Amino acid sequence: MVRRSARIQYSGAQKKPSSDQIAATATVAKQADEIKKLKTELKECKKELKEKNQKNQLQMFNQKLEDHKKNLTEKMADVMVRIGTKKELEKEKKEVEELKKKCLDMLKKKSNEAIERNGGPFEWQICSVCLERFTEEDQHTPRVLKCGHTFCLGCITKLWKSGDIKCPTCREVMWCMNPATVTKNFMIADVSK
Ligand SMILES: [Zn+2]
Ligand SMILES: [Zn+2]
């Protein structure tokens, strides 16, 4: 009887945990809970970080895209300015050409009127060496020497002697490799067309 009750008491003591054991179990459970929480937090942090990285990458990509766009816009503007300037220049060039032609026509008209009033060509329209009128024809084109006197190319070629041309009017010597390169007197040439 005594033995049996002792056995019951024993088994009862085994079933009932001590307060230390209860406390330890509670601590472990609490710690497990905390670990679980921390794991969840860590998971969330990782997720957030991933999102942030993706966002950063997207921002960087967007920035690069913006820079590229800005660069292209600037280049485009530059090209537009250049096209505009070129068009403007071409227009101005055309206007100058037209004005030049108008002036030349007027000059020719006035010159012809003056020749008519004079009863013949002026002295400056005639080569003082061969006494022929300056024309567009190569050998009769007016050429101006360094001294400022003008003669026809034919006469200048005859005056040329081993690299020197001696002006028949003032005797100044001009060095020249090739008489054909002597500057054309455009003032006279233009009204002699
Ligand atoms: Zn001549
Ligand atoms: Zn001269």
From TrEMBL:
Ranges of residues in domain RING-type: 127-171
Pfam family for this entry, one: zf-RING_UBOX
Keywords, ordered alphabetically: Coiled coil, Metal-binding, Zinc, Zinc-finger
Stretches of the chain forming a coiled coil according to its record: 28-109
KW Coiled coil (keyword) present: yes
Molecular function GO labels: zinc ion binding
The keyword Transferase appears for this protein: no
Source species, domain of life: Eukaryota
Residues covered by region (Disordered): 1-24
Protein name as it appears in the record: RING-type domain-containing protein
Protein source organism: Caenorhabditis brenneri
Biological classification of the source: Eukaryota, Metazoa, Ecdysozoa, Nematoda, Chromadorea
